[in-house]
Structures are given as structure tokens and as C-alpha cells.
Amino acid sequence: DAKTTQPTSMDCAEGRAANLPCNHSTISGNEYVYWYRQIHSQGPQYIIHGLKNNETNEMASLIITEDRKSSTLILPHATLRDTAVYYCIGHQGAQKLVFGQGTRLTINP
Amino acid sequence: DSGVTQTPKHLITATGQRVTLRCSPRSGDLSVYWYQQSLDQGLQFLIQYYNGEERAKGNILERFSAQQFPDLHSELNLSSLELGDSALYFCASSVGIATVNTEAFFGQGTRLTVV
After folding, report:
1. For residue range B66-110, what is the model confidence (pLDDT) as tens digits?
2. Residues of chain A positioned with their CB less than 8 A from the CB of B43
3. Which of A39, A71, A78, B97 would be a feasible disulfide site paired with A18, CB 3.0-4.6 Å?
4. Exposed, middle or buried, B100 (CB in 10 Å: 0-12/13-18/19+)?
């Protein structure tokens, strides 16, 4: 799995877009960028993943740079329930996930 | 609800004892993964099984063992327990190893407390 670098913590106001960056300069051509989050001691929750193109689902959008060395997870209208640790992982699906320290996102009222 | 079921949710036991944690994967998922998360620590990969066979191993202690049964449920056995084994243990499942474009689904974990 590719090594990823994320900010340790971030704050965002409720209702605003939360933009979480991730650097993955060593990602290989066949590794996807996956995002998971863990809400206080619960099991990690899958958010979204992508290979080259930007992706959007009901939870979030994923913007991947053209050189695939970095990406941004966007939560368009953050709520208090989005407070969690967010993990960016460069990964071939169905292999083991290697979690880093992630970004602790705090949504403030 | 992720579809992955872990039992028990909480477990309190004494040092030196042995416990078994159980995981039922999502219907149709062949891969099962086990992770350990100690207090304020990251998620540490322990072991992966695919269709009954061990597929990958992480930093799993020799006192720990796991297996996946023909019905695809998995058990993680922890023996000679020490205080430092107190942690959250998560199980995850995914479709399989041949599919590269798939996500993993995690259970709600078993909180083990060794006293």
C-alpha cells in the first residue's frame, strides 16, 4: 500500500464544506485511493474510492489530481455527525487495508 | 448497519485467560480481516483469511490465532492474556481477493478488557 500523508487535525464549521487533503506521491498505477472514517470507537466506515477520475456519492466527493499524487475528500455540507477520524489509504481493494494516523476532523456548531 | 456481526460486544477477563472473538461477515463476502485498536492507537492489521485460507499476516502475536470456517465466519483466539491486550478488536469483510475495486465493511468491534 502507498504511504499517505494527512494533516493531524482539522476544524470546520457546521454547514460548510470540509475539504480533507491527502498526499500519496508513491501510489502505484493500480492502487485506488480509498477514504474511510471512524466515528469515536465505532468500526471504520467506507466513504468513497477512486482511481483517476473524480468520484461523487451520497456521502462525499473525491477529487484526485491528474498526476495522482494527491487527493481531496469533500464533505459538502458538514454536520456535527461528521466529526470523526478520516483515513486516506492507497490500496488495491480486497487486500489488507493499512491505516495511518488519519485526520481528526472536528465540526464546530 | 455494515452487515458484519461481531460477538460479544464487550468482554472482561483476567490475565492469563483465553478468549474467543467471533465474526460473521457480510453475506457473500469471502475475505475476513482482523484489526486491533488499543486506546488512542491506530488500527493495526492482524490477519486476513480468504475462503478458509490464511491470506496475509500482520503483527499478530504468537499467543493469538485465527481461523475461518466453511460457513465463512471467523474466530480470533487470544490466549495467555496480558493487560496490554486490552483493546478494540474489529473484524471486516470484503468480497474477495480477485476484485481490486471493492471496499471493506467493518463490524462494530469487540471491546476486550483484561484485568
Report:
1. 999 999 999 999 999 999 999 999 999 988 665 566 788 999 999
2. 38, 44, 99
3. A78
4. middle
